Write a sequence for this structure.
């Protein structure tokens, strides 16, 4: 009997990517606790229906993201969460899809409080007219959104546009990295009744301050927006307990 043909490169990539996504989501979602050993290669390979070679490639990717470490004669162990590369887009997405979304959202909010008020102040002094128009367009799309889910994408665009308007070489890519986490966080913060409607005047205050080139007003408006968003996240967390 002839052996089955070897997978094509695209097929191998597809298998490898599926294992990375599935196994990464299981780990980040708490299916395997930090410190736990993953099942053997034979068991995992059989459960995913892939060869050991494909499985090892996937484990290498997860190791590069800080989720696991593989040691000869010991196996593959889940690393402590403190070692995970939380700015990796995949790790963020897996975390936000898991049960610990409220915790991730609160950690993200702490970073946003550090970064975004100053970013708004910088944008007030540096934004081009086209960049201000982009911020305004995102705000207008938030206003026109027919439901909460439809408002999430323009809300993300609003905040990323403010970061981009700083003309800072590090803030723009930071926004792109945390995009998935922002989306999940905004869905959570909009859960309390009326949260989205209450946030609109605060977004407008940020836009107006940037448009007026008033750095301190932009800083204060963004700080106010984030403080109320943090409160909405805390309220949503109580609701889903």
């Amino acid at each position: 009997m002839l052996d089955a043909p070897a997978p094509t490169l695209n097929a191998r990539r597809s298998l490898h990517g599926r294992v990375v996504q599935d196994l990464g989501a299981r780990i980040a979602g708490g299916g395997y606790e930090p410190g736990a050993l993953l099942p053997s290669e034979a068991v995992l390979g059989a459960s995913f229906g892939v060869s050991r070679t494909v499985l090892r490639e996937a484990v290498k990717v997860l190791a590069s993201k800080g989720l696991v470490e593989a040691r000869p004669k010991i196996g593959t162990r889940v690393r402590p969460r403190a070692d995970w590369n939380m700015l990796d887009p995949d790790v963020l997405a897996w975390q936000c899809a898991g049960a610990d979304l409220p915790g991730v959202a609160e950690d993200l909010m702490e970073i946003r409080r550090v970064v975004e008020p100053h970013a708004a102040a910088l944008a007030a002094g540096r934004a081009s007219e086209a960049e201000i128009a982009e911020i305004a367009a995102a705000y207008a799309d938030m206003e026109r959104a027919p439901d909460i889910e439809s408002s999430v994408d323009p809300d993300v665009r609003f905040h990323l546009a403010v970061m981009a308007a700083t003309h800072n070489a590090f803030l723009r890519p930071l926004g792109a990295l945390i995009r998935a986490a922002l989306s999940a966080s905004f869905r959570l913060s909009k859960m309390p009744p009326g949260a989205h409607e209450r946030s609109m005047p605060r977004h407008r205050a940020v836009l107006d301050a940037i448009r007026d080139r008033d750095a301190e007003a932009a800083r204060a408006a963004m700080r106010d927006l984030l403080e109320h968003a943090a409160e909405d996240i805390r309220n949503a967390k109580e609701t889903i307990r």
Remarks:
- The chain has a mean pLDDT of 87.
- The CA atoms of residues 71 and 77 lie 8 Å apart.
- The chain has two domains: 9-83, 100-239.
- The domain at 9-83 is CATH 1.10.10.10 (Arc Repressor Mutant, subunit A).
